[in-house]
Task: inverse folding
């Protein structure tokens, strides 16, 4: 943000209004201090002080950086053991029903806790859905604080059924914030028999 101070005075000879602009003013300066400074500056001449105007300029057409995602993983069973794998950059995940752990496919997404994820254009030919989206302020596999998104038949574990074969697809979306641009990542989960 650029801050400027505009000092308006009346010329002592012509009675015409004139302005003097001082740029690169400290944006943390109190407006009352800037007014006092403007009055003192005008007092250095014979011109009469009229008013002081503070102008805080913020560029609105700047491009915001992409959302910071330091870890985006999903869980499945590999060789009988739990595995946490990176979500491919194209967002396409192939998983067999036998690889689905604890009746859900859990996504863990490490990103700032500034806005909740949305699941747009959701469709499913499986019985699975986005069961919930919760932010946990604890560590998982060396990652601190992350969104956990289970793809399952129900949010409550005790009510979950086994996930059936089919295709689950959605666009993972985060709204634009003061810090980041909007984020959209298409996700397709191909769940096969086996």
Result:
């Amino acid at each position: 943000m650029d801050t400027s101070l505009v000092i308006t005075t009346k010329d002592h000879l012509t009675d015409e209004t004139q302005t003097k602009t001082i740029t690169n003013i400290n944006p943390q300066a109190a407006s009352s201090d800037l007014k006092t400074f403007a009055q003192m500056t005008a007092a250095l001449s014979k011109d009469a002080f009229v008013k002081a105007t503070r102008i805080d300029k913020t560029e609105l057409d700047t491009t915001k950086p992409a959302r910071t995602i330091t870890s985006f993983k999903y869980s499945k069973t590999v060789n009988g053991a739990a595995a946490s794998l990176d979500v491919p950059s194209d967002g396409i995940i192939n998983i067999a029903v036998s690889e689905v752990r604890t009746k859900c496919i859990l996504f863990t997404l490490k990103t700032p806790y500034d806005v909740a994820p949305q699941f747009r254009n959701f469709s499913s030919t499986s019985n699975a859905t986005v069961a919930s989206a919760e932010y946990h302020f604890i560590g998982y596999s060396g990652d601190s604080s992350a969104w956990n998104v289970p793809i399952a038949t129900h949010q409550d574990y005790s009510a979950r059924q086994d996930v059936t074969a089919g295709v689950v697809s959605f666009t993972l979306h985060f709204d634009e914030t003061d810090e980041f641009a909007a984020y959209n990542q298409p996700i397709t989960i191909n769940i096969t028999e086996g």
